[in-house]
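Support request, please re-run this one:
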Amino acid sequence: MSDADVSDTGSGRIVLLTTSHRVAPGLLSWQAWQALHGADRVLCSDGAHPQVPYLREAGIRVHEESPAARELVDACAGGRTVVVVATGEGDARLTDGLARLAGSGRIRMPDLELLPASYDLPGARLLDLVQVMDRIRAECPWSSRQTHEGLAKYGLEEAYELVEAIEEGDRDELREELGDVLLQVVFHSRIAEDDPEAPFSVDDVAGGIVAKLIHRHPHVFGDETATTPEEVKEHWLRTKAEEKRRSSVTEGVPLGQPGLALAAKLSSRARTAGLDVPLPAGEGVGYELLAMAVRAEAEGVDPEAALRAAARTYRDAIRGAEGVAEPHGDVEGHGHADEEDTLQDEDEDENEDDA
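Re-run finished. Output below.
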């Protein structure tokens, strides 16, 4: 290749500036502001880019242009610096074109730099979930008609499936089930926004639990100390009692939960309060199960988890007697519901309504 084959556009610098839409516009890194203020030309193909008004307010002239790769390289002639403010989706046409020019060996390329101007904070993808849920609620014919009462059954299903994933030790399944439970929280919060009398949002939900956690952890956010789990529990119970001011330790215990869990919770409340309450006398399996649940709780055993473990062993024994292989994944009705069960169960619900 002769020197004449190489187009001498001069050195220079192209800075591809990326920003996160999950961070408030204008909150850019110091390196980004330096690059913007020091650039000979700042380009953005999207005039409605959320950063543009803030850049102009800071005295930076932003040109709404979408140059081809060669045009951008030529703009750097003479050692000039051009900053391209990337859109949220990026500009594959431009980056691919620059890559082809660099690979051709026929163009003297300017320095190329990818500069992240802002980064996602931990939990930033939760904002995406809220945004997606808001759009689904507004545009989906099924989701837009849902109520707290109609979704209640899914909350129970997802909670049970989360417990099952934990017990089975499946990390991938655990991550998925946590997402399904999170969907229930965001979905119900979005429905609550539409309530005409007492609306609240997911921010109100998050703000409430944040305030509760801070108040119930004075050893973390206050002046008190706790060095053992027992001391932490003492702080928690004391602050909880101050908040609730209940007349009975049984208040707040959901009676709709499974029987063994309910019996164990009542036993725990009574024992923690120092109440010595004899078990009610009676005959039948119910009273026998009650006594066993109370005994399990006193011994630090979760009776529901213990029974589930025994039941799984029993299930395997039954399948062994049948000569059926052990289940793997979604076998014979043992599959998991997921977000599609919540968001796309129209036909089932319509059939139930017709029955």
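The two ends are 80 Å apart (CA to CA). The first helix runs from residue 30 to 38.
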